[in-house]
Design a protein that fits this description.
The complex is a heterodimer of chains A (155) and B (150).
Chain A: H1 2-24, E1 46-47, H2 49-58, E2 62-65, E3 81-82, H3 88-95, E4 105-108, H4 113-125, E5 131-134, H5 137-143
Parallel strand pairs in A: 1-5, 2-3, 2-4, 4-5
Chain B: H1 3-32, H2 34-44, H3 52-72, H4 76-99, H5 119-137, H6 145-149
Helix pairs in contact in B: 1-3, 1-5, 2-3, 3-4, 4-5
Classes of the chains: A alpha/beta (155), B mainly alpha (150).
Chain lengths: 155, 150
């Protein structure tokens, strides 16, 4: 019983410290996680914004905008190719001369990874295997200060 | 005083410090990278997704507080109870991941990749559990802060 009482004392202290640290930290996460961000049944891995930014700066990967509105609404990551689920066949035909199946691609949507996964599956069916999805999508990229453009996405 | 009487406090002290140090060290990277730790927890597919952030925020603080309490010997039985409970939880999580064939990283000490889950981790955690139970079961620890207070 003494051990249990002591454990409760330590737990209360830990919860107090956790609350204080959560309140004062600038990079705190929301208390309730968005389940879609952590959805695990994606056909391809997720890549964080920080990692994607490094790859962008290194110029080793191509970015693919999968948003239904593309860059029209609020810009895009510069140099993105436009491949959307709803117009997949025509979009892929437009970029076939620029994107080869062995090219490493970073797919992004507005914010959630699941809508992007549909495009990833169709790209995989066309032989593209080196795919990752940008975690948090375009919104996370923009909020992190990543470069954006108001122009139409394209090569 | 028998040899046993002389050795037991030493065993107690070593176990307390070792387990405490392991838990304090394990908490550090998780505290620095809560987002990566949340993803590591999500990979186990055991915690409801909306609770990931709360869990990822709270667990390392409990590890830190319990580990530090074990090291200094304050509320040591409670601390031993907490670290034992957490270790049992880790054993269950790793065993469940192995049973389901999940190829994931442990997330134990390093949230950026780290050691993959495997039987070796299970064995390690059973040793950790055995060491964590020592301060809970053995009554005497002359070097603990609790002992000086009483």
């Amino acid at each position: 019983m003494a051990a249990l009482r002591e454990a409760w004392v330590l737990l209360v202290i830990a919860v107090g410290l956790a609350v204080v640290s959560w309140a004062i930290r600038g990079d705190r996460l929301p208390l309730l996680a968005d389940p879609d961000i952590y959805a695990l049944d994606l056909p391809v891995p997720l890549v964080s914004v920080a990692e994607a930014r490094e790859l962008y700066d290194a110029g080793t990967h191509y970015f693919v905008d999968t948003r239904a509105d593309g860059p029209l609404a609020d810009g895009a990551i510069p140099g993105s190719f436009l491949i959307r689920e709803t117009t997949f066949d025509t979009d892929i035909d437009d970029v076939l001369d620029f994107l080869y199946p062995e090219d490493p691609l970073i797919l992004y949507g507005a914010s959630l990874p699941l809508p992007v996964a549909a495009v990833a599956v169709r790209l995989q069916a066309r032989g593209y295997e080196n795919l990752v999805i940008l975690q948090g999508g375009y919104e996370a990229w923009r909020q992190a200060g990543g470069p954006v453009t108001d122009g139409e996405a394209g090569p | 005083m028998t040899v046993r009487d002389q050795l037991l406090p030493l065993v107690h002290l070593v176990c307390r410090w070792a387990v405490g140090a392991v838990f304090v060290y394990a908490s550090l990277d998780k505290l620095i990278h809560p987002d990566a730790f949340a993803q590591a927890i999500a990979n186990y597919r055991m915690v409801p997704l909306p609770l990931l952030h709360t869990f990822a925020w709270l667990l390392p603080v409990v590890e830190l507080v319990a580990g530090a309490a074990l090291i200094v010997g304050w509320q040591r039985r409670g601390a031993a109870l907490l670290v034992s409970a957490m270790t049992v939880m880790f054993i269950i999580a790793i065993a469940a991941a192995l049973a389901r064939g999940l190829d994931i990283s442990c997330g134990c000490f390093d949230t950026a990749g780290g050691h993959g889950v495997g039987v070796d981790l299970l064995i390690r955690d059973f040793f950790l559990l055995a060491a964590a139970l020592v301060p809970l079961i053995l009554p005497n620890d002359r070097w603990a802060l609790d002992a000086r207070r009483r």
